[in-house]
TrEMBL record:
<keyword id="KW-0472">Membrane</keyword>
<dbReference type="InterPro" id="IPR002293">
    <property type="entry name" value="AA/rel_permease1"/>
</dbReference>
<protein>
    <submittedName>
        <fullName>Y+L amino acid transporter 2</fullName>
    </submittedName>
</protein>
<keyword id="KW-1133">Transmembrane helix</keyword>
<dbReference type="InterPro" id="IPR050598">
    <property type="entry name" value="AminoAcid_Transporter"/>
</dbReference>
<dbReference type="Pfam" id="PF13520">
    <property type="entry name" value="AA_permease_2"/>
</dbReference>
<dbReference type="GO" id="GO:0015179">
    <property type="term" value="F:L-amino acid transmembrane transporter activity"/>
</dbReference>
<keyword id="KW-0812">Transmembrane</keyword>
<dbReference type="GO" id="GO:0016020">
    <property type="term" value="C:membrane"/>
</dbReference>
Length: 405
């Protein structure tokens, strides 16, 4: 190893109860994988891909690539079951400096833009139904409402944590309901013969001949399957992690990829390319064209989904800087808990402030670029750590081993 630095995660003597089986793992991964990208990012991917056919191919390829990366994380998670994710894997293998870079890069280039992205999504879906299909809410209004949503959830997570966790299941379920609704409505449009036939006369029309736009489309597509990193935190709660978690990865990604492909096809059955690119709130435009009476329902469901993912992110992401402070990689104040509420106020608030800065200074495309760029760097570090351990410690016990490396 690069040096003797190791991550010291604060744990209690009592371990979590191993109560999760394969079905539980699949349910968790299906719920979190892809967060709410299917409702806000398709237009960005389509604008880069240029054609419907290439767009669908990129969504499928991105899902398959994410499976491979996820399984690399699973192998390291079985080696370091209590380590605390990529930050700890990299620190344990390459030393404290690498861990420091990963932790602060994650906070600045992933957490901040991601919270801003989720706040923006919730806001735009709340405001969009109040405007005609050819008119969209002012950007500043969207960002101010997004900032209010973010600050409200931060306060709730700091003070009323037990109440927030009770509604999380309902918020998460709204995403599944919304996806099913879009697929069903797409099937209804197809069954009635009202689909936009011109979209499917030549699905590869306008496909770029240069490699750059294609690569950019794949780059954006990789982002839309994020959220599976929660798999790193499941090890202690799964009865047979080395057996069930890899299976859960294959099953859940298969479900999510099929869902996302069907939702994209539903979008293209209803919307023209111009409509598809006209707004980030593509699901709202989808309902406004053929099912205007369902627009408020779609707005509520997607808004709830975005709030649910943001709430879960605030609860989960705050642990990273909290752990980093305990290990000397962040100022000690970020390792403190409120004496009454026992929540990491400083860790939550500093990230909320940075997220607000990102919200007012960026756009959906910029958020995606920041997040995916550093996600790629972090993945490179993690895969390098995996390969280094394979070379330096070939006899190390590995309950699960990635077969293609």
């Amino acid at each position: 190893m690069a040096d003797q630095s190791t991550v010291q995660i604060q744990t209690e003597e009592i371990r979590m109860k191993k109560s999760m089986n394969l079905l539980h793992c699949v349910a968790v991964l299906v719920a979190v994988t892809g967060h709410i990208s299917i409702f806000i990012s398709p237009g960005v991917i389509f604008s880069a891909a240029g054609s419907i056919g290439l767009t669908i191919i990129e969504w499928i390829c991105a899902g398959l690539l994410n499976i491979g990366v996820c399984l690399c994380f699973v192998e390291l998670a079985t080696v370091f079951p209590s380590a605390g994710g990529p930050y700890a894997y990299v620190t344990n293998v390459f030393g404290g400096l690498s861990g420091f870079v990963i932790m602060w890069g994650y906070i600045i280039l992933i957490v901040g833009p991601f919270w801003a992205y989720l706040s923006y999504t919730a806001s735009v879906y709340i405001l969009e139904p109040f405007f005609r299909i050819d008119c969209h809410p002012p950007a500043l209004a969207v960002k101010f409402l997004g900032a209010w949503i973010l600050s409200t959830l931060v306060v709730l997570n700091c003070i009323y944590m037990k109440y927030v966790t009770k509604v999380q299941t309902v918020l998460t379920a709204s995403k599944v309901v919304c996806l099913i609704l879009i697929i069903v409505l797409g099937a209804v449009v197809l069954g009635r013969g009202h689909e936009t036939k011109s979209n499917f006369e030549d699905v590869f029309e306008n496909t770029p001949s240069e490699a750059g736009p294609v690569a950019l489309g794949i780059f954006y597509s990789l982002f839309v399957y994020g959220g599976w990193q929660i798999v790193c935190g499941l090890m202690e709660e799964v009865k047979e992690p080395a057996r069930d978690i890899p299976r859960a990865v294959y099953i859940s990604f298969t479900i999510v990829i099929i869902q996302y492909v069907l939702v994209n096809i539903s979008y293209f059955l209803v919307l023209t390319p111009a409509q598809f690119l006209s707004s980030n709130a593509v699901a709202i435009i989808f309902t406004q064209v053929h099912f205007p009476y369902l627009t408020p329902v779609m707005s509520i469901l997607v808004g709830m989904s975005a709030v649910g993912v943001l709430n879960a992110s605030i609860m989960g992401h705050s642990r990273l800087i909290f752990a980093g402070a305990r290990n000397g990689h962040a100022p000690p104040v970020f390792g403190m808990l409120h004496v009454r509420y026992l929540t990491p106020w400083p860790a939550i608030i500093i990230k909320a402030v940075w997220s607000a800065v990102m919200l007012f200074s960026g756009s959906v495309k910029i958020f995606m670029q920041f997040i995916q760029a550093f996600s790629s760097v972090m993945t490179l570090f993690v895969v390098s750590a995996l390969l280094y351990l394979r070379w330096s410690q070939p006899q190390l016990k590995r309950p699960y081993k990635v077969c293609y490396l």
